[in-house]
Amino acid sequence: MTDHGKPSSPQYNPGKGEGSPVGIALLGHGTVGAQVLRLMQEYSDELEHRIGGPLEVKGVAVRNMEKHRDSVPAELLTDDAFGLINRDDVDIVVEVIGGIDYPRELVLAALKAGKSVVTANKALVAAHYQELGDASDESNVDLYFEAAVAAAIPVVGPLRRSLAGDRIKSVMGIVNGTTNFILDGMDSTGADYDEMLAEATRLGYAEADPTADVEGYDAASKAAILASIAFHTPVYASDVHREGITNISPEDIKAARAAGYVIKLLAICERFNNEEGQEVVAARVHPTLVPRSHPLASVSKSFNAIFVEAEAAGRLMFYGNGAGGAPTASAVLGDIVGAARNKVHGGRAPGQSTYANLPIADFGEVYTRYHVDMSVEDRIGVLAEIAKIFTNHGISLRTVRQHQGEDHARLILVTHSAREKDLEDVVEELKQLEAVRGIESVIRLEE
Amino acid sequence: MTDHGKPSSPQYNPGKGEGSPVGIALLGHGTVGAQVLRLMQEYSDELEHRIGGPLEVKGVAVRNMEKHRDSVPAELLTDDAFGLINRDDVDIVVEVIGGIDYPRELVLAALKAGKSVVTANKALVAAHYQELGDASDESNVDLYFEAAVAAAIPVVGPLRRSLAGDRIKSVMGIVNGTTNFILDGMDSTGADYDEMLAEATRLGYAEADPTADVEGYDAASKAAILASIAFHTPVYASDVHREGITNISPEDIKAARAAGYVIKLLAICERFNNEEGQEVVAARVHPTLVPRSHPLASVSKSFNAIFVEAEAAGRLMFYGNGAGGAPTASAVLGDIVGAARNKVHGGRAPGQSTYANLPIADFGEVYTRYHVDMSVEDRIGVLAEIAKIFTNHGISLRTVRQHQGEDHARLILVTHSAREKDLEDVVEELKQLEAVRGIESVIRLEE
Fold first, then answer.
1. Which of A254, A372, B38, B283 has its Cα between 20 and 30 A from that of B15?
2. B410-413 contacts: CB < 8 A, separation 24 or more?
3. pTM above 0.90, yes or no
């Protein structure tokens, strides 16, 4: 297996030299592409200083040219993306199309032709991490994707460079603005999921088909990318345990609020030793209870926040606007400057680093905490029966709260950290228990 | 003037090739140096993968060898720093001594000898930014200093790289843990400055001579570095308006609390148009009122937080542990990995970028807001007299609160944004006013 921690030195490219123009092919002209094109023009003087030569857009490839005739100069517009990529005067290919299969072909074609690639496409990177890294290594060109995670919030760069001398233990955060907008709205207004989704759609925070956001696919792609970089191990979107927010009810939110928590959709990437003592990694996305005093609890609206815990650095947080045309374009432009500098002066950014190649844990092996809310019979001995089930699985309880109902009791339990599999087994057994009338909700919890 | 936005391409160094060891000279073996040495050993396998070759410590230079005999292997220990730097097998010089003049000589000697330099020394970088940048350009080697600002919180790297395609408007934050520990303690316990300083010293948050921290020199150096990078303009520590926290009284803290504010020592770097319409930059450090709802208000103990506002990216925040041996060493090691990668594979990090070279505004030109707390005579017409002074200087008031005392009134005014000079003039005139018995406090305010 190739070690992707380093560029392969023999094919080293010494650069075009100072003052040389750098040719850009822009693939896609949607919300992000249009902002990239605008800002490349608006900032052209500054960018030239920072790069050491001017950027020149050689073409903008779109599927349907008619839709873009008014906004893209005629001499740049094309529907022949492969033709554009292969032009001799194109040095860097910027992919802001979205989707997986078609952009994969384009990006691989660009890398094979010796062009550096900047992409904002989280689904693509999370599905083909190793393949894209290999292709960039083989041609000794750059592959940048800062915009694929949390838009303009610098997190890919800091993980790959600033923290390159540390050991990262976990990366956890709110990486999807749409679901955060919905959950934050449910929490602050009492609205239900459908009302907040409609509001998010009206304001442009949710797409016509919101599946990728609300079912956690978008967050899972980002979790896969973050885990891959942080743990030097290829982790794919399909490796990420994923639960969305569509089942979160106003009652869940209300109960969380009463207990001092807020519900957030978190992406959690961890490196840990499993029960066999083997070092493994895991990535998961699910609704999570967070104490109201936790900094993640105050991440409102469509903002993103990412916590990184490293051995030497301790805990770090990165916060900002994780979506939108201009913030995403800012990240794309930062990557273009990096790739263009290397084209002018030589050198290469750190390649995909997968040397650790740690095993990926099953979701059942992950350690987590459960918050279980259930209705139980109101009689002596019920709590003892329930507690016994936890004890049998080696799980200890951290808090137990009981509220008296008319003819039943409401029991809210929070466990200490335990294996997901054991917690799941306990819940199954609780469901079978005659004394348990119903499990109202089971939500994982982070502190 | 040289354009430091780019490395000079002709002398391009193609690298030593994969597998080649990279020789490290460590200058200094204090809190940070000891952690750097420890972590280089502990992480040596991972670092080798990430770099493409092993790191080899060639020597540790200290002033007094006796003090370090127990902790540094005898074959590494030396008191001849220049001799160590000039060894043929040293590729990267890591400076963690502190001070300005002596480390400046060492760093310049290293750069001139073609060694890349990693330094954690904010005072040095803030005093000799351009000179050090020129020296690294001339030898076409790297100069890294992530650890000079906010320890392990990645902010130098993100500003130089991730945000290289954006226009930064301001950088503002809490960059000194000692003063934040003191102010946070005064706010939460009601203790006075001297008590909290003693506590900070006892816990190791403050040095025996706390001047650099409490008088704002440390924060001013960091502000100078942040402004230099963000605005592509050399800004020196001596250009930074600096006020410390030694005059902050428990009464100031209590009054701030009553009005919904907390007092923080902020470093504020801005790019703005002055009254003549000229684009200028300014950096300042002073105690500042921050609303309790502002994210900076909740930065407690010795933590640091830095806000960056950029045109396209919007507002970003970086948060974490801004001091301490291990967090600072994490940043140093990240820089060592970057410099070592370039030694192995060729290429160079972006050099010091000062192409914009914007004029530095006088402090009087800066726009800020005042919170003025004063005792005034309790009679009709006083408020009108006072308001007239503000109006004469073109300053409008945002809030006016009046409390009745026994024989006088307490008047608390918050202004809208205005020129510092005009605000200072107003305060001078207020002092002359017969109706004003005394100005209790004047503190600037940020929202």
1. B38
2. B410/B373, B410/B374, B410/B375, B410/B376, B410/B440, B411/B372, B411/B373, B411/B374, B411/B375, B411/B376, B411/B383, B411/B386, B412/B255, B412/B259, B412/B371, B412/B372, B412/B373, B412/B374, B413/B370, B413/B371, B413/B372, B413/B374, B413/B386
3. yes
